[in-house]
Structure formats: C-alpha cells, structure tokens
Specification:
It is a single chain. The protein has 10 helices and 14 strands. It is an alpha/beta fold. The strands form 4 sheets. Strands 3-2-1-4-5-6-11 form a 7-stranded parallel beta sheet, with helices on both faces. β5, α5 (140-157) and β6 form a beta-alpha-beta unit. α6 (190-198) packs parallel to α8 (259-270).
Length: 329
C-alpha cells in the first residue's frame, strides 16, 4: 500500500488520520514532538519523537524509511493565541512547514498533503464558501496557513511538488469506539468545551460574542466529524499516489450551526443543562464560515458518513467520559 509519514500524527486530527491509514493497510511513521500530542493516541505505525524544524532528524527519518508521501499536521491552531503570540505561530506553522518541504526536496519526495484551514478565507464575501473565494485571513493563524499554501502552489508550478491542501472547517467529535479523541487540556473548540462543561470539568461554558450579524447573534460554523475528515485525507492520498495533480479542497458538510444551536444540541445529547456565560467577541473570529464542499465530493468522491450534529456531539461526549475515567493526559 505504501508508507506514509504523518507529522503531528499524535495530535487530535493527525491521530484519527493515522487510525484511518492503518485500517486501510498503509504503513505509517508518526513524527511528533508531543508538545500537544499524546503517545496513547497513536493506534498504528511507529512513533518517532522529533520537531519538523530539525533538519538532521528529518533526514534520518527519510533515509531510514521508504516514505511514499507526507501528511503534515504539525501546527499551532488556536486563533486567539495566534493574535496574542503571532511570532510563535509563524515560527512553528510557516518555518516548520518550510523545513519539512526542504527536507522532502533534498530526499527526493514530492507527494504532500497539507492540513490547511477555512481561516484562510477571513470574513468571506458570500456563504457557502468555494475554493475560488479570495484568501483574506483576519488572524495570524489563518495567515500562516495561507502563506504555506502559496509556497505549495509555487513549488508545484516549479514542478518540485504534487500536493493536496485540505481546508478544514470546524473539526469535531471523536472515534466512535472512544479509542481516541481530543486530548488537549486547554482545547478551545466549542463542542469539546460543551462536553467538558457538561462533565463538570469547567464551571460554565463561555460564549464569545452575541452581536454578530447572524440570526441569533452568535457565530455560525460548519462542523465536520473528525473521522469524515480523516477519510477525505485518504481520498487525497489515493489521488496523489495515482499520479493526480495538485488540488485544494474545502472539507465540511456545507451546512452551518450557530454557537447557540450547538449548545442546545449538547445539552440534549448529554442530558446536562450546564451553565452558560456570555462574553464579548474574541479577536480573530469571523461571523460565519460554511463550506461549499461540492468540489471534494465531485472530484474525490467524498461522501460524508457522520453528517449529524447530535452524533458528532455524542462521540465527543463518549470520549470525554472515557478520558475522565482513565485520566488520560
């Protein structure tokens, strides 16, 4: 089937992609510095601890393993933190990606799947958002993803690389069997925050902004189950391994839910009427982000399996209860 290097493969999204690769029969090498990832999250393959900015360590990995393609997830992802600490994000997300690409080029590797984000669109002109929408990020996190996408396009034009950039909308949920899920203690995604508040790990859920130009005043997002997102990565990999050309795809369900709708659904699924606190807007949050995912469906044959908000929350809730029970850190 081939051997795939997955950077950041011990993290939330990366570990679900590693699971999907392993189940599909691929050999996997996970490369992660474990700054936010966890050894317990790596269900398949070999884990090597290292940083993507370490050229010597990357060369060693490429020389010791017959890598066929690279999937890159090693990035900082918290939007408000990126506003407060932009240099941290540029050093890791941009410099780290350039370091990895440089090592790939030096070692003759040219198939690359990039973990991008809907944050590259900023405040879109229209909803839903197509891949042709202009890129105008409004926070450093989104800017780092846009910069790397530009580098990839330039490398592809120079015939140094074949890549697929997947622009994630809001990734949520967990492995339906509760083997892995979000493990960061300081996770900021709304569904994770809801289930952790319902579990009593937080005193209340804080909602940032109730005055957005949306029907109920809270932000609207397109939530995609992490296993559906992992499946999109396998389709992208098959495309590249079959000789496919470089592509960019939105990854979402083409439907949006407001923060208040998510909160109500989480209360219903968990059976807990947890307390909610309303605060002002966070820096860097667009009012609405909803994908037009028809290109992904038409070109790669992507068909969602878990396009149901209650189910997404239910898998996150089941995982959170297990995480608490086992005290996984």
């Amino acid at each position: 089937m081939g051997m795939i290097l997955v950077t950041g493969g011990a993290g939330y999204i990366g570990s679900h992609v590693v699971k999907a690769l392993g189940q599909a029969g691929y050999d996997v090498v996970v490369y992660d510095n474990l700054s936010t990832g966890h050894e317990w999250a790596v269900l398949y393959g070999k884990l090597i601890r290292g940083d993507v900015r370490d050229q010597e360590a990357l060369d060693k990995v490429f020389k010791q393993h017959s890598i066929d393609a690279v999937m890159h997830f090693a990035a900082h992802i918290v939007v408000p933190e990126s506003v407060r600490q932009p240099l941290k994000y540029y050093l890791n997300n941009v410099t780290g990606s350039l370091s990895l690409l440089e090592a790939m080029k030096r070692n003759g590797l040219r198939k690359f799947i990039f973990s991008s984000s809907a944050a590259v669109y900023g405040i879109p002109d229209k909803i839903p958002i197509t891949e042709e929408n202009r890129l105008d990020p409004i926070n450093p996190y989104g800017q780092t993803k846009a910069v790397v996408e530009k580098v990839l396009a330039d490398m592809a034009y120079a015939q140094d690389l074949d890549y697929v950039a997947l622009r994630y909308f809001n990734v949520a949920g967990a492995d339906p069997q509760a083997r892995i899920g979000e493990g960061k203690e300081d996770a900021t995604h709304i569904i994770t925050m809801c289930v952790r508040t319902a579990a009593g790990l937080r005193p209340c859920l804080e909602i940032f902004g109730t005055d957005y130009p949306t029907p109920d005043g809270t932000c609207i997002r397109d939530y995609i189950h992490v296993d559906d997102l992992a499946h999109a990565h396998l389709l992208a990999l098959e495309h590249l391994l079959a000789g496919g050309k470089s592509r960019v795809y939105n990854c979402g369900y083409s439907r949006g839910y407001s923060v208040l709708q998510v909160v109500e659904a989480a209360k219903k699924v968990t059976g807990v009427d947890f307390p909610v606190k309303y605060s002002g807007r966070r820096e860097g949050d667009p009012p609405a982000l909803v994908a037009d995912a028809t290109k992904l469906q038409a070109e790669l044959g992507f068909t969602p399996r878990y396009d149901n908000l209650d189910h997404i929350i239910e898998t996150a809730w089941r995982w959170e209860q297990k995480r608490i029970r086992l005290a996984l850190k």
